[in-house]
UniProtKB/TrEMBL annotation:
One of its GO terms (molecular function) is GTP binding. It is an enzyme of class 6 (ligase). Binds 2 manganese ions per subunit. GO terms for biological process: DNA repair; RNA processing; RNA repair. Keywords: GTP-binding, Ligase, Manganese, Metal-binding, Nucleotide-binding, RNA repair. This is 3'-phosphate/5'-hydroxy nucleic acid ligase. Its cofactor is Mn(2+). The active site is at H82 (gmp-histidine intermediate). It comes from Luteococcus japonicus. Transmembrane segments: none annotated. Its EC number is 6.5.1.8. It catalyses: a 3'-end 3'-phospho-ribonucleotide-RNA + a 5'-end dephospho-ribonucleoside-RNA + GTP = a ribonucleotidyl-ribonucleotide-RNA + GMP + diphosphate. It comes from the Bacteria. GMP binds at H26, N27, P58, G59, S60, M61, S65, H82, G83, A84, G85, K152.
Length: 153
């Protein structure tokens, strides 16, 4: 999918260039060597943040995201958060907010603004900047990104 998007943008915007993609998965199991032992590390809602690893920590649909570099913190098994985290459950967000609320909170972002994705509303998520400040022992910030388009569902 990523390659298709890059190809389409290159077709539409002459001279555009792309850096190498950042492979950054969450919700997976990996076999890793820690303290001289082989472990199966499960990352649920977490990314690998080994020393020098580049990663992406997203905010919500209407907030920014971060590109980070892992510090390899052994106490966290070289992990960092996958995102801002939820302030409320998906169901609670669906009960509390409407598509109109979503449209208001994502007015500067090109994204879906209907009931089917109202559970992704920014108000249902924690503050991404607070989340980044809470893990300075796990990652260093390389760049802060501003959300322009958001593809969901």
């Amino acid at each position: 999918m990523l390659q298709g998007i890059c190809d389409e943008l290159a077709h539409r915007i002459p001279g555009i260039g792309f850096d190498a993609p950042i492979p950054c998965h969450h919700n997976y199991v990996a076999v890793e060597n820690q303290d001289g032992l082989e472990w199966m590390v499960t990352r649920k809602g977490a990314i690998r943040a080994g020393a020098g690893d580049l990663g992406v920590i997203p905010g919500s649909m209407g907030t920014g995201s971060y590109i980070v570099r892992g510090l390899g913190n052994e106490q966290s098994y070289a992990c960092a958060s996958h995102g801002a985290g939820r302030r409320m459950s998906r169901n609670a967000a669906r009960r509390r907010f409407t598509a109109a609320d979503l449209a208001e909170q994502t007015s500067s972002v090109e994204c879906r603004k209907e009931e089917g994705v109202v559970d992704e509303i920014p108000a249902a998520h924690k503050d991404i900047d607070d989340g980044i400040r809470a893990q300075t022992d796990l990652v260093e910030v390389v760049a802060r990104l501003q959300t322009l388009p958001c593809i969901k569902g």
